[in-house]
From TrEMBL, chain A:
Assigned protein family: Belongs to the ABC-2 integral membrane protein family.
Family annotation (Pfam families): ABC2_membrane
Protein's name according to its UniProt entry: Transport permease protein
Organism of origin: Pseudomonas fluorescens
Molecular-function GO term, any one: ABC-type transporter activity
Ranges where the ABC transmembrane type-2 domain occurs: 24-255
Compartments reported by the entry: Cell inner membrane; Membrane
Transmembrane portions of the chain: 34-53, 65-88, 109-134, 140-164, 176-196, 229-252
Length: 263, 246
């Protein structure tokens, strides 16, 4: 058991060291949601009135509405960036080092997912701290309650990223895939606008948003931040995390990548 | 018991056969050179030995442990230096070593002891805090060897480990690895396509188009065939001789 713990600790520590060394990556992960919060939200505040909706008890400014969506946006980008680093690692060979560990491959991959998720959480809380200073202040207890919700979402999106990276033949193909994954997931969700607004515009788009896993991720975090429990969102996120992780582990095989290259 | 035993190993990329019924064994403390032109199947063999690829047919035993049946026990006895550097360039020498120790489940105390021992053995103690990016090619290879030996394996695989090094570093690396065999009883499988890295007393295996076309001690093989090593290698791998360098 100790061997597993040491291995997990080592993988998390390596991700931490890489994160600390890549300050620009940290800054860009923060700048993106902050721009949305400060610039986009200011412009949209007047255009988009938010009525009283759950879990809020009263009318809220648009900045308050988009905070959970932007927190999840950090997790989405990091999950995908994590998978980008998997493709990079696979091409550069450092994935080979990970796989020479005598511990089971499933454990190694799950440890890598957990490490990526934990580093993402640091960025989310750094963002929430800046938002707090900016004046968007969810209940203090909500910030604590949201921690497991954010971790679950981070794991779900990292597992999705790993699953995608298994399907990507090489690094160059990655950017295109991202455009077909990140943008639809983000914009077809409740991150930037409540779904009833979307329903006013298009019933079809509303249903796409309603079945989007990212919508459930955002709602889980939104409710947790306001000390409420979103049962359906939780069930969807737990189920999809398990499904994505299972598929990612089953489809992870460097041999397949080699066969595709040579084939 | 052999330190490394490969039996009836075959592997195909789809319809293309990369390895065909390859079999050999290494005794404890033996240095064996695996020669082969580019595309002979060396990299596929290394990928199978390190469990990067799953076995299709045949078996590999490391210190008696089957990679198919007891992969954990087998991999614990195996150290690897890959052809392409797999070090984290932005981490320090010591951080790279500690990461590897963790992957092998060594406790903090074990890691401390092993890291100190390997840094000393590779004469890298003074460079432990330097980032790998700041090291030259020869030192990076030494870090990779230190890393490969950190968990005290009985078998060390070096896949074209001297590629990209200057002649002096290449020679030093070759000598150093031989001393590991002589002084510590570690068995070494050294894959290369450079004939000057092979000595007369070495065990030699020549891989060509996925088949083992010669196997035995170098001086015995050359006497039997009445050739020097260069001519023997050229004759055995004739269709692909362009990949070999004397």
């Amino acid at each position: 058991m100790n061997a597993y713990w040491q291995c997990l600790r080592g993988i998390v520590l390596r991700e931490w060291l890489r994160f600390v060394l890549q300050r620009t990556r940290f800054l860009s992960a923060l700048v993106r949601p902050l721009l949305w919060l400060v610039v986009f939200a200011a412009g949209f505040r007047a255009a988009l009135g938010i009525s009283v909706i759950e879990p809020y008890d009263t009318y809220i400014p648009y900045e308050v509405y988009i905070i959970p969506g932007l927190a999840c946006m950090i997790l989405l980008f990091n999950g995908m960036q994590g998978s980008l680093s998997m493709v990079y690692d696979r091409e550069m060979g450092s994935m080979r080092v990970l796989l020479t560990s005598p511990l089971p491959r499933t454990f190694l991959l799950c440890s890598k997912l957990l490490a990526t998720a934990l580093i993402s959480l640091l960025q989310v809380y750094a963002f929430l701290a800046i938002a707090w200073v900016y004046g968007v202040r969810p209940p203090a207890m909500g910030l604590l309650i949201a921690l497991p919700a954010l971790l679950l979402v981070a794991l779900m999106l990292s597992a999705l990223g790993l699953l995608l990276s298994n399907a990507i033949r090489q690094l160059e193909n990655f950017a295109g895939v991202m455009n077909f994954v990140i943008f639809p997931l983000f914009f077809l969700s409740s991150a930037l606008y409540p779904l009833w607004k979307m329903r006013d515009s298009s019933e079809g788009l509303y249903w796409l948003c309603a079945i989007n896993p990212f919508t459930h991720a955002v709602e889980l975090v939104r409710f947790a931040l306001y000390e409420r429990f979103a049962g359906l969102a939780m069930a969807v996120c737990v189920g999809l995390t398990a499904l994505f992780a299972l598929l990612a582990v089953l489809t992870f095989n460097p041999q397949h990548a080699a066969l595709r290259k040579k084939g | 018991m052999s330190a490394l035993e490969v039996s009836a190993l075959s592997f195909a990329y789809g319809s293309r056969q990369a390895l065909n019924e390859v079999g050999f064994s290494l005794a404890a403390g033996q240095f064996a050179a695996l020669l082969g032109p580019n595309g002979a199947g060396k990299s596929t063999l290394i990928a199978l030995l390190t469990r990067l690829y799953d076995l299709q047919s045949g078996d590999i035993r490391v210190s008696g442990h089957s990679l198919r049946e007891a992969p954990r026990a087998a991999l614990t006895q195996l150290g690897v230096v890959f052809q392409q550097s797999t070090l984290d360039l932005d981490l320090s020498v010591e951080q790279n070593l500690r990461y590897h120790a963790a992957l092998h489940g060594l406790s903090r105390r074990q890691a401390n002891t092993r890291v100190e021992a390997e840094l000393t053995r590779q004469a890298l103690t003074e460079r432990r805090r330097e980032k790998v990016r700041e090291l030259n090619g020869g030192h990076r290879r030494r870090v990779e060897i230190a890393r490969a030996l950190l968990h005290a394996p009985r078998v060390l695989l070096l896949d074209e480990a001297s590629v990209g090094l200057d002649p002096a570093s290449r020679l030093a690396l070759n000598r150093h690895v031989r001393s590991l065999c002589a002084e510590h009883g570690i068995s070494v499988l050294w894959t290369t396509h450079l004939l000057d890295e092979v000595q007369a007393s070495d065990a030699l295996m020549v891989l060509h188009q996925g088949r083992l076309v010669a196997s035995g001690q170098v001086d015995v093989l050359t006497q039997q065939q009445g050739d020097d090593l260069g001519s023997l290698f050229a004759r055995l791998t004739r269709p692909a001789i362009a990949g070999a360098t004397a």
